[in-house]
Amino acid sequence: MRAALLFLVTACCLWVLLPAGASKVEKPLPQVDGVLQLTKSNFDKALKKSTQLLVHFSAPLSGDGQRVSAAFQEAAAELQGSGVTMATVDVSKDKDLAKQLNASGPPPVRLYINGDKHTPVVCPVPKNAASILTWLKRRAGSAADLLTDFSQSKDSEELLVVGFFKDIASGYADVFYAAAVDLPDVSFAITHDEKLISKYDITHDVVLLLNKSRVVEAYKMAPKTSKGDLIAFITVYQMEVVTEYDGQTAGQILTAPVPNHALLFISKSSKEFKQIHSAFLSAAQSFRLKVLFVMVNVEEPRNGRLLEYFRVREGEAPLIRLVNLTDHVTYHLPSDKFDTEIIKTFCQTYLDGTAQPKMQSEPILEGWDTQPVKQLVGSTLEKVAFNPDKTAFVLLYLPYSQKSRALFPLWEELAKAVEHREDVVIARIDASANDINLSMYGSYPALRLFPALFAERVVDYTGKETVKDLVKFLDKEMEKAKKYRVKEDEDRKKYIEAMKAEDAKKDNKSKDEL
Ligand SMILES: *[C@@H]1O[C@H](CO)[C@@H](O)[C@H](O)[C@H]1NC(C)=O
Ligand SMILES: *[C@@H]1O[C@H](CO)[C@@H](O)[C@H](O)[C@H]1NC(C)=O
Ligand SMILES: *[C@@H]1O[C@H](CO)[C@@H](O)[C@H](O)[C@H]1NC(C)=O
Ligand SMILES: *[C@@H]1O[C@H](CO)[C@@H](O)[C@H](O)[C@H]1NC(C)=O
Ligand SMILES: *[C@@H]1O[C@H](CO)[C@@H](O)[C@H](O)[C@H]1NC(C)=O
User: Fold this and answer.
1) Ligand 4: which atom is nearest the Cα of residue 311?
2) What per-residue confidence (pLDDT) applies to 343?
3) Cα 113 to ligand 4 centroid, rounded to whole Å
4) What is the 3-state secondary structure (H, E, C) of 156-221?
5) Best label site of 68, 150, 205, 394, fewest CB within 10 Å?
6) Ligand 4: residues whose CB is within 6 Å?
7) Which first-to-last residue range defines the signal peptide (predicted)?
8) Domains and CATH numbers, the chain
9) What is the pLDDT of residue 155?
10) Can you give the pTM of this predicted structure?
11) Distance 372 CA to ligand 1 centre (A)
12) What one-character-per-residue DSSP string does 370-409 give?
């Protein structure tokens, strides 16, 4: 009886619930301007419902974030009813979902097809809505889509990549088309136009980069040419031969498909700028697809972080560094002359793998402290220079600099003159091969005194380059350091006495209390 009753009650409940559930209109996914706002709770539902789900994993504070969001909104309006659904996931709020989808980092835009959560297609970071629309269109098409009759076209196109192929069904056309898909912001065309072929004096199977109909560069297709090779060609030749680093170009430089960068650090207002820049530019022509040439103006305060990263001080410019972006090892041009041949040789030795990387510290040389002038390296500099018992006078030099080398005999003489003094060390260090962190500006050669007793103090010598004047300076600074030290000692003594008095008072108090 009780079982029957229970059944009846349950049945009633079901009856009440069922029609309500069936008639309930499904709640639409939240959206803003046609872009779905997805979270952990509704991502799977959106995935199931869309044949193509284009998702922007947005990090609101990232540089591209705002621009991509705007492009998404505009594209969403165009894509209404197209079978492509636009969506965004706020990675900063929905960390769990991003992690689950392995989308915590770049690429920020991915296309999920037919509900497959695991193998989304990477979408190039769009500049604007047109980038997205072109990318989707090219993805869905084939090389034949790019066939163009040039007799109809105007010369207005700024940049145009044209493929001349003997056979449109060839592998070359496929590679060409695959590159076009990945570069939606560049116009691509394929032609059979014989007039054009004779106009540009080319044979078949060549890709031309045109700038307002003028040939920037030609690329001959070969059986081993890959999509990546072609993309590298187009991306690099779209850029200036030497690109100045700034807020606008930084992204282009860092994402360029060339893993080797040559950086010229120079002050644009300096009088040698024109000549050095022109040598750098003509060297750059020979390494276009191998090394990306970048100029960094050291006077620009916004470049401060870049200088810090490469440990370049404004006073050290001009100088040239090569950096391998794969392992982040840097190389320093061992010259204070900057002509085209020297820069080219430097790049070539680097590419050949025979250049010496710039190191934190050279290895310690055997017998480094047995000569009158001690030969320091990065790892011994601090210990010797900041020794509280000895005053160190250090020559920081560049081995390839005439001006630096001219000081060597003077330094030997100075070392001999003070050889008998136990409290003085004369030393030198190669500032090009050792990273010297003395948080101070200055150029090389530099003569720096590190007075004993006063370990934090560093004094630059800028007087006459004679032994007599150097010794006078040394003695004066040592006296000064002693005086400072005496005063410091007195202050310290007073402080200690005051502390003792305080303690004694406390003692008396506790005795009184007993
Ligand atoms: C994320 O990566 C992990 C480990 O590689 C993998 O097991 C998981 O299936 C991935 N998630 C997705 C959504 O592809
Ligand atoms: C294209 O030509 C214009 C001048 O017409 C020039 O300013 C621009 O730098 C050129 N672009 C490339 C990539 O060569
Ligand atoms: C850059 O670094 C990578 C990884 O260590 C290495 O394979 C490559 O040869 C280096 N390139 C040059 C030009 O030294
Ligand atoms: C330089 O030394 C200071 C203090 O020792 C340290 O805080 C700083 O990080 C160092 N800078 C570099 C670039 O190593
Ligand atoms: C502590 O007490 C002793 C004797 O009780 C006295 O001589 C001394 O001055 C006191 N010291 C202080 C700091 O009050």
Assistant:
1) 13
2) 97
3) 49
4) CCCEEEEEECCCCCCHHHHHHHHHHHHCCCCEEEEECCHHHHHHCCCCCCEEEEEECCEEEEEEEC
5) 150
6) 311, 437, 439
7) 1-22
8) 31-137 (3.40.30.10), 142-236 (3.40.30.10), 240-352 (3.40.30.10), 374-478 (3.40.30.10)
9) 57
10) 0.68
11) 63
12) TSSSEEE-HHHHHHHHT-TTSEEEEEEE-TT-HHHHTTHH
Atom in ligand 1 nearest the alpha carbon of residue 119? 14
Cα-Cα-Cα-Cα torsion 387, 388, 393, 395, nearest 10 degrees, comes to 30
Residue 481: what residue type? A
Tokens of 188: 């691509």
What spatial distance separates the first Cα and last Cα of the chain, rounded to whole Å? 86
pLDDT at 253: 87
CA of residue 330 to ligand 3 center, whole Å: 11
- The residue contributing the CA closest to ligand 5 atom 10 is 508
pLDDT at position 512 is 67
The alpha carbons of the chain give a radius of gyration, in whole angstroms, of 35
How far is 182 from 180, CA to CA, in rounded Å?
Answer: 5
Q: Of all protein residues, whose CA lies closest to atom 5 belonging to ligand 4?
A: 437
Instruction: Output the CA 211–ligand 2 centroid distance in Å.
Output: 6
Ligand 3 atom with least separation from CA of 350: 13
How confident is the model at residue 223, as a pLDDT? 92
Query: How many residues does the structure list for the chain?
Result: 514
| Centroid of ligand 2 to alpha carbon of 217 (angstroms) | 12
**Closest residue to atom 1 of ligand 4, CA basis:** 437
Burial class (CB in 10 A: 0-12, 13-18, 19+), 132: buried
Report whether residue 468 contacts ligand 5, using a CB cutoff of 6 Å.
no
CA 439 to ligand 4 center in whole angstroms? 7
So what's the pLDDT on residue 18?
44
3-state secondary structure labels for all residues of 1-38: CHHHHHHHHHHHHHHHHHHHHHHCCCCCCCEECCEEEE
